[in-house]
Amino acid sequence: MGTVLKGGYVVELEPASVERVDLRIEGERIVARGEDLTPAPDDEVVALSGKLVFPGLVNAHHRLSYVLARGWVRPTPASYQALLEQVRWPFENALDLDAVQVAATAGGLESIQCGTTTLFDLHASPHAVTGSLLRMARGLHEVGVRGVLAYAVTDRMGAVGREEGLEETVSFARKARGRFRGQVGAGPVFTLGDDALQGLGEALNTTNTGLHFPLAEDPLDERLSNERHGNPPVTRLLNGNLLSPRAMAAHAGHLEWADLAQVLATGTWLVHTPRSNQEQEVGYAPALKFGARASLGTDGTSADLFAEAQAAYLRSREAGQPIDVLRYLANGHRLASQVFEAAIGPMREGSVADLLVMDYLSPTPLTAETLAWHVIHGLGSRHVEAVMVDGVWRVWARRPLSVNPTVVADQSREAATAVWARLNQP
């Protein structure tokens, strides 16, 4: 038994195309594409009547736990270092395993309702390390979203905390199956001593994965890395053989061109997070210079990747360095395809059936030539009507099928209240 999507406009991002064709899905794959496909006798037929069939989006750098920080009355930091020490790190320290799982469900639900079918999360909960990625996977599994999870290893909690983080990120990467994969994660490079870099290298060799980490979000990363460890972040990463075509560096807003060129030469993916950069007031990352392996992530902001793509383009235009927003989105699919070793994104035979049905009544012609402008100025999460992951409907008629949104919201508010209470303790 399969599913036939009839009468929709199927969208491809790169090369861009918009074509009125049918798709047939069997199991987790697209098995046929063509005009007026004939369904098998036991196929489910979905009449789309001109709606868009859009590739499921990939969020290349997210922080699921920060959904519990939304609305928290926090200190107003005077610098990036104060932001870390007074806001981010205390919040992460206040997380327990129950909060981690609830945040994954709530953040995963928000993601899939916004059209994201795959997300890469870099997690930290220093007082609840062991088992945290498994709890995140359980939360995401409830929703049905695809996840690539990593624990952010750091020395800021001492050697014991570092080793606990290494064990967690390696353990999950070894066990992850199905819709989940693991990566080796790291905190800011200035929080990593030489022993940590060596441990990360060993973890990468053990797991045969890539490193997911923030890089040069603020000039503080380079300054403290030089002061504490005698070299800038890129030099230390290169010396440790930690950069590769499997590595993912988020932000990269404050790198000298020579350092950026060295990162690009390793094939490392660069993940642009414009809304987070604006919120943290860390300046604009020159995304046009990020090369052919650049994608988009939402970091700790809302999980709306359509909004991120629009912000990315408009901010780049304002800076006089406009990016190709369709390529950035398509690169998310290339990244996910690399990690899952399957074609994710192309709406073609043999590809994994991760897709969106979007109820978008275009006010102007929607063609390959105009697609980017519709993404930038028109299409949005409000148009997501149905979501399929691995050939299974996870959202239908704008309603999640495997969780009750009211229950998820109640649990999330309860978890957030407990986390905030711990933050307010003297």
TrEMBL record:
Protein name: SsnA protein
Amidohydrolase-related domain boundaries: 52-393
Keywords annotated in UniProt: Hydrolase
Organism of origin: Corallococcus sicarius
Record GO terms (molecular function): hydrolase activity, acting on carbon-nitrogen (but not peptide) bonds
Listed SUPFAM superfamilies: Composite domain of metallo-dependent hydrolases, Metallo-dependent hydrolases
Regions annotated as coiled coil: none
InterPro entries: Amidohydro-rel, Metal-dep_hydrolase_composite, Metal_Hydrolase, MTA/SAH_deaminase
